[in-house]
Amino acid sequence: MGVVGRPEGACGMESGKTAARGRTVTKLADPRALRAYAHPVRMALMGLLRTEGPLTATRAGELLGESSGTCSFHLRQLAKYGLVEEAGGGTGREKPWRATTTSTEWDAVTDTPEMSAAAGLLRTVAAEAAFAQLMRWLETSEEEPAEWQEAAQFGDRILYVTAEELAELGERVREMVDQYFERQVRPELRPPGARLVTWLQLAFPNDFRKR
Questions:
Q1: CA–CA dist 118, 121 (Å, integer)
Q2: How many other CB atoms sit within 10 Å of the CB of residue 188?
Q3: Cα separation, 67 vs 160, whole angstroms
Q4: Can you give the pLDDT of all 211 residues of the chain as single tens digits?
Q5: Pairing between strand 103-105 and 25-27?
């Protein structure tokens, strides 16, 4: 259930049965909500609100390189499906918005063609957003301190596993990563030198040529 996408910070999509301390979840069960979320600017806005806190459309536009009008429109669309809400204070494009939860999820297996198409679109947009982040890192990583270049993860493994084993492996990895989740909602827990990091979790059958 659910698919993993960008950081709980940016897209914040998650999967799994366990819940990390401090995590709250919005589950998208309406194909209209899935299609509404499947937009690069809206995903970027969710990332900002989940990592930077409440923001006005004007400030969000400055951070994303978008106009305040564009951000205001997309924030209102996200609000229609319960993903963001007004944080109080300000008017017009100067009123702050906040994310309603730290994560978003939807069913990986759907029961209608409409839901399947909407979920497929959202997965595609999420993957494009995640790999855009990866490409930015690769393009600028040589300018980073040596310790961060060495700590960054980049690689793959070839495994032969059953569906049950793959699901179990994913759950074990999530449990390890979730040890650090509370730092997202409680900045005082972040040790000196901690940075915002995107952790991508991807694993899928790759034997299409044999089928």
A1: 5
A2: 5
A3: 48
A4: 333 333 344 444 544 455 577 889 999 999 999 999 999 999 999 999 999 989 999 999 999 999 999 999 999 999 999 999 999 887 777 899 999 999 999 998 988 999 999 999 999 999 999 999 999 999 999 999 999 999 999 999 999 999 999 999 999 999 999 999 999 989 999 999 999 999 999 999 999 877 6
A5: parallel
Q: Quick one: how many helices (H) and strands (E) in the chain?
A: 8, 4
Angle at the Cα of 204 from the Cα atoms of 148 and 168, rounded to 5 degrees? 85
- The CATH architecture that domain 25-210 belongs to is Orthogonal Bundle (1.10)
Structure tokens at 173: 């990895």
Distance of CA 200 to the CA centre of its chain: 9
Domain residue limits, the chain: 25-210
Q: Output the pTM of the full model.
A: 0.83
- Tell the residue number behind the tokens 């209209």, with chain if given: 32
Residue 172 amino acid letter: R
Nearest to 49 by CA among 66, 20, 71, 17: 71
Task: Tell me the residue ranges of DSSP E strands in 20-72.
Answer: 25-27
